[in-house]
């Protein structure tokens, strides 16, 4: 019940203050510091993390993984240690990153950065956009920019909440540019929340 209230509260706050999830770094920071996004680590969000972690392990076992908009690092906590060789998470919120660092390891790094300007120093086998694209001003341009940081044969993993503003258009346009290897829809029955998770491969230019 508390989990459901947190979700509704987060949605109401977001809608009241901003254009959907496109909100200022300060707003993210305030919300994380207040624990508003802690519910993302609860059981009712597990399904989408499990699908993304499963894609990493099945499609690119031992991958170097870049998690864009990683929040409090829940994806790293869901990844089996044997499933990745290197993990980097970036997020706007210093509070979220500080929390994420409590669970890091010698193979993981967390960085406070704006993904719309950050440029990775190394290539990655898998780049994850887990519930972050609807938070960005230029989601498709951003994905395209990170494509340059994919290793040959690398994959993009995406999760989009279907209720988030722009999610359908973003997914449709992504699929014009990238070939879907797999796509699933998940619904949490009690919460009536759905997500689309997809594994995408750059099409040949
Ligand atoms: C809905 S939360 C999802 C967090 C996490 N990926 C998850 O699935 O639980 C969106 C995250 O994107 C981050 N974010 C929003 N805009 C960003 C930007 N421009 N650069 C980096 N992170 C950003 C927020 O701070 C927040 O942690």
Question: Can you describe this structure in just a few lines?
Answer:
It is built from seven helices and seven strands. The chain has one domain: Vaccinia Virus protein VP39 (Rossmann fold, 3-Layer(aba) Sandwich). It has 205 residues and is an alpha/beta fold.
Question: How would you sum up this structure, described in words?
Answer:
Helix content is 35%, strand content 29%. With 205 residues, it is an alpha/beta fold. The radius of gyration is 16 Å and the shape is globular. Bound molecules: S-adenosylmethionine (SAM). Residues 28, 40, 69-71, 74, 90-93, 96, 114-116, 130-132, 135-136 line the site of S-adenosylmethionine. S-adenosylmethionine binds next to strand 2.
- Mean residue pLDDT: 91
> In CATH, what is the homologous superfamily?
Vaccinia Virus protein VP39
Query: How does CATH name the architecture?
Result: 3-Layer(aba) Sandwich
Q: Number of domains in the coordinates?
A: 1
Please write the string of helix (H) and strand (E) elements: HHHEHEHEEHEHEE
Shape: globular
Radius of gyration in whole Å, from Cα?
A: 16 Å
Q: What are the distinct ligands in this entry?
A: S-adenosylmethionine
% residues in beta strands: 25-35%
Estimated helix fraction:
25-40%
Q: Which fold name fills CATH's third level, the topology?
A: Rossmann fold
Spans of 5+ residues with little confidence (pLDDT < 50)?
5-19
C-alpha termini separation: 49 Å
Our count of helices gives 7
Biggest β-sheet strands, sense, barrel = 7 strands, mixed
Return the structural class.
alpha/beta
- The CATH class turns out to be Alpha Beta
List how many beta strands DSSP finds: 7
